[in-house]
Design goal:
Layout (H helix, E strand, L loop, with lengths): L1 E7 L4 E5 L6 E7 L2 E12 L2 E17 L2 H5 L3 H4 L18 E3 L18 E17 L2 E17 L10 E3 L13 H7 L4 E3 L6 E20 L2 E12 L1
Parallel strand pairs: 6-9
Antiparallel strand pairs: 1-4, 2-3, 3-5, 4-5, 5-7, 7-8, 8-11, 9-10, 11-12
Length: about 230
């Protein structure tokens, strides 16, 4: 007989990103879907085969409304400093900034993955056979899985919009001894910016096989023997 199942899940979330203050209100949508088909065939009272094919896809996206986006765009807030690689920042977002030495500082933080684009797909196949003969129950099977993922950037990457460090630094001759004062005068310790958008591509396979024997030589004695092999690329 043949059976199957399909499941779909949607989990929209709306919230503000930022450190200690709601800098950018954005929406995150996570909507995975999964399909599985199973085929079971009884060849004889002693021989059974089970075949299953399945797949999973899970898109994840973040977006921001135009009004929320404008509160973080350089031209809208009057930030005139240039950018080394403007093509990496097509939305023209303001740079990140840290203010070391200020307790509870409202740092400027836009995640390196924004606007987030995350796609991954999983396809798997398994086939298991069971054969009963005398006092032996023999089982064998294979499993194969293919995983592929594409993601824009990661949380560890340098930001596409640039990052200033305005922290207190006694070795900086222009230091005001107050991080916000440094920012007002344009005195920074270092600046970091990625030269182009970062993309992560991951592909892997998982192949497994097993064989086992459940042997009952006596009424009160059962022995299980088995072997499982893995190959994960």
């Amino acid at each position: 007989f043949v059976s199957g199942s399909y499941s779909y899940f949607r989990n929209p979330q709306v919230g503000a990103t930022g450190t200690n203050w709601p800098q950018l209100v954005s929406s995150l949508t996570n909507h995975p879907s999964m399909l599985s088909i199973r085929y079971t065939r009884v060849f004889s009272p002693a021989l059974l085969n089970e075949l299953q094919v399945g797949g999973l896809t899970q898109p994840v996206d973040t977006t921001a409304e135009p009004d929320a986006l404008r509160t973080n765009q350089r031209d809208a807030v009057g930030f005139r400093a240039g950018q080394l690689y403007p093509s990496a920042n097509p939305l023209n977002l303001i740079p990140n900034a840290t203010f070391g030495g200020v307790t509870g500082a409202a740092n400027l933080t836009i995640e390196p993955r924004f606007p987030r684009y995350n796609r991954y797909q999983v396809v798997n196949l398994s086939d298991n056979a069971t054969w009963t003969r005398a006092n032996h129950t023999l089982k064998a099977g294979i499993y194969y899985e293919y995983f592929h993922r594409i993601q824009k950037g990661s949380t560890g990457n340098p930001p596409f919009n640039g990052r200033f460090n305005f922290g207190i630094n006694a070795n900086n001759p222009l230091n005001t001894n107050y991080a916000y004062g440094n920012a007002m005068l344009g005195t920074f310790n270092d600046y970091t910016e990625v030269s182009s958008p970062m993309w992560m591509h991951v592909s892997m396979t998982n192949t497994q096989a097993f064989v086992q024997d459940t042997w009952r030589p006596f009424r009160r004695l059962t022995l299980d023997f088995g072997l499982r092999l893995y190959w994960i690329s």
